[in-house]
Structures are given as C-alpha cells and as structure tokens.
From TrEMBL:
GO molecular function: symporter activity
This protein's record includes keyword tRNA processing: no
Name of the molecule in the record: Inorganic phosphate cotransporter
GO biological process terms, semicolon-separated: monoatomic anion transport
Localization per record: Membrane
Topology with respect to the bilayer: Multi-pass membrane protein
Length: 173
C-alpha cells in the first residue's frame, strides 16, 4: 500500500489537481480512518479467528497509505529540518506504543476475555478517529517560513547561522 499510495499521491501532485495539503490530508484520512472502521468490525465480530486475521491484515495494509500522508509531511513543511521532525514524531509514536501495552495489560489483567479486548478495540477506534480529526484540522503541506535560515549579522557582523541549501528550488526538485 505504501508504494501504491505514494505513486498516486505523486501523480496527483504533479498533475496539479490537488495541493500538497489536500493530498496529505486525503491519504492520511484514508490510512487512519480505514483501520478505525475495521476495528469497529473487530469489536463486533472479532471472536471469529478468520475475521480477526482478515481485519488486522487489512488494517495494517491500508495504514500503509500514511506514507503518502503525514509520513511525507516533514519534507513538505520543512525539508531543512525533516530529519529532526521525523525523529521527534517517531519518538512520540514510540511512546504511544509503550503506553498502549500498559493499557492492554491493565484492561486484560487476569481477564483475558474477548469482552475485555473489546475495550482495547474501541480505544483504537477513538485513537484513530481523533488522530485523523486533528490532522484534518491542523495539518498543512505548505512550506513553513522557519524552514529557511537567513544569514543574519549577529554580534558585530559575525554570521551565526548559514542555510543548509543555497537555493530553495534545489530542495523542491
């Protein structure tokens, strides 16, 4: 899915049909709300092992579209700082992975029943939906002004910072 979604996102961007912001929001929404919907199915039908395997496989597959969504967004908004942005986002998401194991442990401690796991699936639905909503409302694909480091004369003319790339067009090419 990552390759397919990225291919279509690139085609949409090159054609000019959608802006970077709309493209990133569309692919992020698809990649996050599809697994949310699948977790609803899991909450109702997950006692069937075949349904569970299909739901989780499909969920992970469709979530791959984030590659054309928010995962590429750091390069859009600040190519000069995309590594830092990606590192910070990855650290935050790793914390979510750690926290989720604690929540599952609390909810299923000594009660490893499907009824207890239903709570986990509904938490996933809420988390996916909230993440999609926040990105839809606050996400942007526009180059941020803080990406460009201008040469500034500081302390009597010494230059403290230099741009990482001399030509902004080189970054976008």
């Amino acid at each position: 899915m990552a390759i397919i979604a990225s291919y279509f996102a690139d085609r949409l961007l090159r054609s000019g049909r959608l802006s970077v912001t709309v493209t990133r929001k569309a692919f992020t929404t698809f990649a996050i709300l599809t697994p949310a919907f699948l977790m609803v199915i899991q909450a109702f039908c997950g006692e069937d092992a075949v349904v569970t395997v299909v739901v989780f496989t499909a969920s992970l597959f469709f979530n791959g579209a984030v590659t054309a969504g928010y995962l590429s967004n750091g390069l859009d908004i600040a190519p000069n700082f995309s590594g830092t942005i990606f590192g910070m986002a990855n650290t935050l998401s790793s914390f979510g992975g750690w926290l989720s194991t604690k929540i599952v442990a609390i909810l299923t401690n000594e009660q490893q029943t499907f009824a207890q796991w239903r709570y986990v699936f509904w938490i996933l639905v809420g988390t996916y939906a909230a993440g999609a909503l926040v990105y839809l409302l606050l996400g942007s694909g526009e180059l941020q002004r803080w990406n460009s480091v201008e040469e500034e004369a500081v302390n009597g003319g010494s230059k403290e910072m230099q741009p990482l790339k001399k030509d902004e067009k080189e970054v976008l090419a």
